[in-house]
Amino acid sequence: MIETFINIILFAMLVLTALAIVRIDQLFGVVMLSGVFSLLSALLFVTLDAVDVAFTEAAVGAGISTVLMLGTIALTARTQKKATRSGFVPFIVVAVTGAALVYGTLDMPSFGDPNAPAQLHVGPEYLAGSITDIDVPNVVTSILASYRGYDTLGETAVVFTAGIGVLVLLSGLARRRREDEEEEDA
Amino acid sequence: MHHHHIILRVVTKMLVGTIILFAFYVQFHGDFSPGGGFQAGVIMAVAFILYGIVFGLNKAKQVFPAWVVHKLVALGVLVYAGTGVASMLLGYNYLDYGAFNPHHPSHGQHWGILAVELGVGITVTGVMVAIYYAFAGRPPPMKDEDW
User: What is the CA radius of gyration of chain B?
Assistant: First the structure.
């Protein structure tokens, strides 16, 4: 009962934050509100007992992303450009996409359904084997690092690739090296 | 420039050590509590990013030079992939951590998980700090009033 109440409050605040993000022109406020949005989603993950995900969302979504968005604002502009065209067509596109997504959820198993495909595949095996095979109390860690070690290696490679991509695009390593050499010459 | 934001500077100096300690806790206690390499890496990076924001990019680069950061980005993936190669050299499957202690496979699992989580943490720390350096190093320094 109380959980339903908390969920309703959190979702209402999520929607309000999203509406405020759409309305505000000052990008600084938008970035701060997106941090708030991340923290609210982290709270939702906590109510779902997904503490690891909530932890990541709070650290990455509310922490790092906010800093990086502020860095982007510093590189570009502080205020949003005024829209010149009417928002009618974008609104239709968004409404249709949203309706399609809601229609898609109708086929999904309801929340916490023990017969959902996700609960019937390899999940029970991992939950049962985690203590005997791996002897790690946090099942999330044993699945992430051991049962699904290949996937996590792939994720690490994705993070690595993203980092290299940003470095190549933004940091201008070659230019900085040239500047350093010039300083040494001077 | 070095005379304003005195409260921020003092609080930051007090917090940075605690944040790094917490990152290590999340990293090495991930077997028992929420957390692991991804979260720990982000928290570790946040310590340096906070330092960079308050004391300036150049000070942060003195503490944690950019070339070290760039090496860490690759080192973490190598640690992770190297763990798999090590288990292969011991005659097991790739990333089968039982190889590290054949008599007690679950102990071997503990070592393997420790190693790969460390790899994840190193790469995530490196990437986050590198991205921050890349963003913060681009624009001319901005005056406080502009915000």
Answer: 19
Q: Would B74 be classed as within a structural domain?
A: yes
Residues 6+ apart with CB under 8 A from B129: B45, B48, B49, B64, B69
Q: Name the pTM for this structure.
A: 0.83
Q: Residue A147 has what pLDDT?
A: 87
Q: Which residue of B has its CA nearest to A67?
A: B132
Residue B15 lies in a domain: yes
Q: Which of A153, A176, A179, A180 to mutate to test the interface with B (most CBs of B within 10 A)?
A: A153
Task: Determine the average pLDDT of the residues in A69-73.
Answer: 85
CA A31 – CA A20 distance, rounded (Å): 11
Compute the nearest-CA separation of A154 from chain B (Å): 9
Helix/strand/coil for A154: helix
Segment A82-102, tens digit of pLDDT: 877 788 898 999 999 999 999
Among B49, B81, B134, beta carbon nearest to A170: B134
Task: Tell me, yes or no, whether A75 and A143 share the same domain.
Answer: no
Number of structural domains in chain A: 2
ipTM of the complex as predicted: 0.85
Strand partners, A26: A79
The predicted structure's pLDDT at residue A19: 94
Chain A residue nearest residue B116, CA to CA: A145
Domain assignment of residue B1, yes or no: no
What is the extent of the structural domain holding A60?
1-80
- Is the pLDDT reported for residue A134 higher than 70? yes
Say whether B109 and A78 touch across the interface (CB within 8 A).
no
Residue A160: both structure tokens together: 């690595």
Domain end: A36, A55, A80, which one?
Answer: A80
Contacts of B126 in chain A (CB under 8 A): 163
